[in-house]
Task: inverse folding
């Protein structure tokens, strides 16, 4: 029995739907945004250079165009920050009580490591102190002998 699948990928309905959606959801918005940018640029140029080009107006419009992307980026960052704060506040209520137990285990391990390090450090400190005392005794003995 032969399969009823289309021979070419271009004949497949999902591919045809994809092509239609690509034009409507990707390319058309890009073209409209470029067209809008060009129109705004032309209108701005006409408004600026009409009546012998008002420099103050041109400076204000340039400042607007420079600040606008920063404001949009800041707004996007603010929205993301608010969303993260909201999600973290929801997440902290969902943390299981086992996290407290895990934290206790980590603290026990930490205190064990500190005790172990202290146990190895004390003999070294004692030997250093003993060496310092011996050097001091020898130094004092040499001073007493020379006088």
Result:
């Amino acid at each position: 029995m032969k399969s009823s699948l289309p021979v070419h990928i271009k004949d497949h309905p999902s591919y045809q739907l994809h092509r239609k959606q690509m034009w409507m959801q990707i390319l058309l918005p890009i073209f409209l945004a470029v067209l809008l940018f060009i129109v705004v640029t032309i209108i701005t140029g006409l408004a600026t250079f009409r009546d012998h080009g008002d420099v103050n107006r041109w400076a204000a419009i340039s400042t607007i165009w420079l600040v606008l992307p920063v404001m949009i980026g800041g707004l996007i960052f603010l929205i993301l920050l608010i969303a993260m704060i909201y999600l973290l506040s929801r997440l902290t209520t969902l943390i299981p009580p086992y996290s407290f137990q895990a934290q206790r285990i980590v603290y026990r391990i930490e205190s064990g490591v500190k005790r172990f390090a202290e146990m190895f450090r004390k003999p070294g400190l004692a030997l250093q102190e003993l060496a310092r005392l011996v050097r001091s005794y020898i130094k004092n003995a040499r001073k007493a002998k020379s006088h």
In short: Residues 98-146 form the longest helix (49 residues). The chain has three domains: 1-53, 61-95, 98-147. Helices lie at 13-49, 55-94, 98-146. The chain has a mean pLDDT of 85.
